[in-house]
Design a protein that fits this description.
Strand content: 15-25%
Strand order of the largest sheet: 4-10-9-8-7-5-6
Number of helices: 16
Shape: globular
Structural class: alpha/beta
Helix content: 40-55%
Length: 420
Amino acid sequence: MKKYTQIYNIIKEMILSGELAVHDKVPSVRKAAQIYGVSVTTVQTAYFDLCADGYIIAREKRGYFVSDMQSAQQYEEDDVEESNTEFDLTGGTADAESFDFTLWQRYMKSALRQTDRLLTYSQPKGEYDLRCAIAQYIKEKRNVITSPNRIIIGAGVQPLLHILCSLLDSRSSVSFPDKSFVQGMGIFSDYGFDVHTRDKDANIIYVSPSHMTRWGDVMPIKRRLELVEYSRKHGSLVIEDDYENEFLYNVKPTPSLFALGKGNIVYMGSFSAMLLPGIRISFMVLTKELTQMYDKKSFRFAQTAGKTEQIALCNYIRDGHIKSQTRKIRRLYTAKTKAFACLIKKEIPDAVTKIGENTLQIIFTSDFKKNLSEFEKHGLKVFVEKHENNKIELVISPSGIPYERMNDAVNRLKMSIENL
């Protein structure tokens, strides 16, 4: 029996027997790993299955709790409510026009024909040919020169951070740019790290140079060089999340920290923004020392990204489609953001509308004397940056709104804020 199945059965039996009562907190992932003498990844896998089967539920920043029928029903209702959102203005959805589904299906069908490969599990680090393709891609695109052996693939950045945390000393301090990095801060906190924001003296410094804040501020080259030199002198590890580097618009391309660094930088990237949110494939490039540590502990890790998608993405990249896809998205979303901003200025002239300097986001500021539930009531999902003194500031990303529905979305926004 696999270890994660054993953990699953232990927790399940404790719940069914009443040893863990409804609403009781389940031991944290890190604590459970210590109790049962297994890896954090093993416990995380068991907890994911327990969540899927309804035995426990996850509460953001609080951990896992024993579920009951009432809470399960509430979560189902929340899911229905979420699915009824007509217009997602947070950038959480993609426009169907942005992606060639027929082309991707062709690559997926080709991958499914490789039956011999699909009869086995993927390598813990990810498929070797995909890691080779990624190594070549980031070398050309970001001057990140590395061997495929140092690349780890995962189904999103979060699973990769779990792996990274298990390789690092949990007694270390970690610094994030600000509190908007909720998921990353939560993962490091769960592992026992001392988490801060804007702490240059931290042992580990997490940065997103191409998207430092909600506004898409880009770290200038001078600051990048200073950070690289400072971290080298003080022996601190830098985690470079190269989020949205492909979608900078009004600044010249800046070199990655990895390319400037001296071997103390972990580079992270993702293909979700370039493809679709539903295609969850990310990667990280470890330092040589961390790669050696990973290799010694590789038996503890399992690959989280689907093997079929990895095979398909490898050929998709090799055939040059990822480059053309990036150009296509840039053109489409640039035009859509400008069009949406113009509609807002026309329909809501009293509001202040500004397109972010470096990214495709609209900063929308308006008088607002209602409850935030007004947006939900009108079928809108919005990101509220600030709400005080009868003023509201939204960060709007209209990328997922079809052109033919933009007028409707803006009218819903108008109805949500206007005082009748």
